[in-house]
Specification:
By secondary structure, this protein is mainly alpha-helical. The protein is built from seven helices and two strands; from the N terminus they run αααββαααα. It has a two-stranded antiparallel sheet.
Amino acid sequence: MPQAKYFEMSEARSDGFLNIGEAAEASGVSAKMIRHYEETGLVPRAGRTVAGYRIYRASDVHVLRFIRRARDLGFTMKEIAALLGLWQDRRRASADVKRLATKHITDLDARIAELQGMRSSLEHLVHCCHGDERPDCPILDGLAGAGRA
């Protein structure tokens, strides 16, 4: 991240730096999340102007895009930190990356199976409910554990 050598944001812009709003727009990561990633150490703290404005290079935006894509694929913050480390280590073995991605697929499969089970249970409860004016409701009974719908 850049050093705070700029007195004004306009000087930083002339050298190609972006403010946090611009970095957010360019990366698809909200300014709030950028600040969160900095606070948690996922990304280094941004450089600042003398007035305290955060400034970002194109390479910082590239890292934020990487994080956004990893989040879109459902990786946890811990996994993303590991992926970032691997991405930035040009001597890493691709087997390490593949191992992490393969584990994530296994985790996704387990979550999908769990969601399918939840859907099936709810679908069964909905099928058992008449959906009429009667107060008896197998859905509510099932949620309360009162019956075996």
